[in-house]
Amino acid sequence: MIGSSPTNTLEHAIVSGVSHEGLTIKLKDGRSARLAIIDDRDNIIEVGEAVAKEAWNVTLAVYKNFLIGQGHLRVFSSPPGLPIPHAKIAK
Question: How many angstroms separate the Cα of 91 from the Cα of each of 50, 66, 84?
């Protein structure tokens, strides 16, 4: 493996990824789990497969930028400050 980023550091969950499948989240006891976006007041903003897909897609974009020598660029899932229409999220 290139580099030495530690994995398996969560106490209760395992996050795994396969290049053609995206992210999978499981609890260490084997039960399924899902990702959520939680604000600074502990409100759940979004949850589920769409969150995992977005996290995966942004991660891939960052990595691709790194590979082509543009690793200093920040990748956003939408322009900063502009919400994505709900219909677009569901797809």
Answer: 9, 27, 12
Q: Is residue 45 part of a domain?
A: yes
pTM of the model: 0.67
Where in the sequence is the domain holding 57, given as residue range(s)?
13-90
Residue 11 Cα distances to 7, 8, 26, 52, angstroms? 11, 8, 12, 19
| DSSP for residue 67 | H
CA distance 4 to 10: 17
- Domains identified in the chain, total number: 1
In a domain, 3, yes or no: no
Confidence of residue 32 (pLDDT cuts 50, 70, 90): very high
DSSP strand pairing (44-47 vs 36-38): antiparallel
Say whether 48 sits in a helix, a strand or coil: coil
Q: Is residue 8 part of a domain?
A: no
Greatest pairwise CA separation for the chain in angstroms: 40
